[in-house]
Design a protein that fits this description.
Layout lengths: L3 E5 L8 H15 L4 E5 L5 H12 L7 E4 L5 H8 L5 E5 L10 H8 L3 E6 L3 H23 L5 E6 L7 H11 L21 H6 L1 H6 L1 H10 L4
Parallel strand pairs: 1-4, 1-5, 2-3, 2-4, 5-6
The chain binds adenosine-5'-triphosphate (ATP) and magnesium ion.
């Protein structure tokens, strides 16, 4: 067994990276019975802190393992754990200057797949464009060495505004494939740990399940 290594990442803050990481890790563990590890490399420690809240407030342990990790240890951490898990998610560190931010590049280079949450808006688009440049650099590096690397956008926090369509077109023009399914801007996705609300509820089935199905296909997870 060699784990799939996945990051939900973007340079832009607040677009849903951590939330989606937690939801997907939960869904893979619960629905697909996968052994999942979440490495929280972000010094905000949102995912890690949330797992503690989950235990204290919801009295529910996450169905995946979670650890905080300084990005400088990523190679060793993966070397020790790659064979022990089916999927490893990495929540990336905060980005400072794209081109020089070696810890983010280091972490992203370890991934097989990077999913980019895209949120409508001009500032979001500019930030995402910089991030895509970083990914293209990594893609080139990996291609020269014949190593698989996929990145794919998805629209998050979709609402009725026409800016959503513009955001999708913008990403395509930047040469980034977009997932067919998007996630709407609803409260359902703000409490990611509550399994029943996302995976078992009627709303969850309608809104999350098609996205999850496409995610599995994209990441070639059976
Ligand atoms: N589809 C969605 N619908 C509604 N709210 C969402 C959705 N996705 C994320 N959010 C909310 O957006 C906020 C930011 O999400 P999150 O912390 O996951 O973003 P992030 O990209 O990890 O941020 P940071 O850059 O600070 O790490 C949170 O309050 C979260 O609950
Ligand atoms: Mg985060």
């Amino acid at each position: 067994m060699s784990a799939r290594i996945i990051s939900v990442a973007n340079r832009k803050g607040g677009v849903g990276k951590t939330t989606l990481t937690i939801i997907l890790a939960t869904a893979l563990a619960k629905e697909k019975k996968k052994k999942v590890l979440l490495l929280d490399c972000d010094n905000q420690r949102s995912a890690f802190d949330y797992s503690n809240i989950q235990k204290q407030v919801y009295d529910e342990s996450p169905p995946y393992e979670i650890r905080t990790l300084h990005p400088k240890y990523i190679y060793d951490e993966l070397r020790f754990n790659k064979d022990k898990y089916d999927v490893i998610f990495i929540d990336i560190p905060r980005m400072t200057d794209d081109s020089k931010d070696s810890s983010v590049i280091q972490v992203l280079t370890c991934c097989d797949t990077v999913l980019i949450p895209v949120v409508a808006g001009n500032l979001e688009a500019l930030s995402t464009r910089d991030f895509v440049k970083t990914l293209k650099g990594i893609e080139e590096f990996k291609k020269e060495r014949n190593i698989q690397f996929n990145y794919l956008g998805f629209l998050n926090k979709r609402n009725r505004r026409k800016e959503n369509e513009e955001a999708i077109e913008f990403m395509k023009a930047e040469g980034v494939s977009m997932m067919n399914n998007s996630l709407s801007d609803v409260k359902l996705f703000t409490t990611p740990s509550v399994y029943e609300s996302i995976l078992d509820s009627k709303e969850g089935k309608e809104r999350f399940k098609p996205f999850f199905k496409e995610f599995l296909k994209t990441c070639k997870i059976k």
